[in-house]
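tokens incoming
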């Protein structure tokens, strides 16, 4: 699994945490963000997901 994909998952978890912070409180928001990251990482590890790589244009 690529490092970039892991960073994307962690950013999504942080956004979920921020979104939940005022709605459900600090502890629940942190747990919600962590659960989001875990739920995203498990299938990514199982299915060997990675982000597409950009290739230079042939000239």
């Amino acid at each position: 699994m690529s490092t970039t994909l892991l960073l994307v998952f962690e950013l999504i978890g942080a956004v979920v945490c921020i979104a939940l912070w005022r709605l459900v409180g600090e502890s629940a928001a942190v747990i919600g963000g962590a659960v989001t990251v875990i739920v995203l990482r498990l299938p990514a590890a199982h299915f060997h997901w990675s982000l597409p790589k950009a290739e230079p244009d042939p000239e």
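note: Helices lie at 3-24, 26-47.
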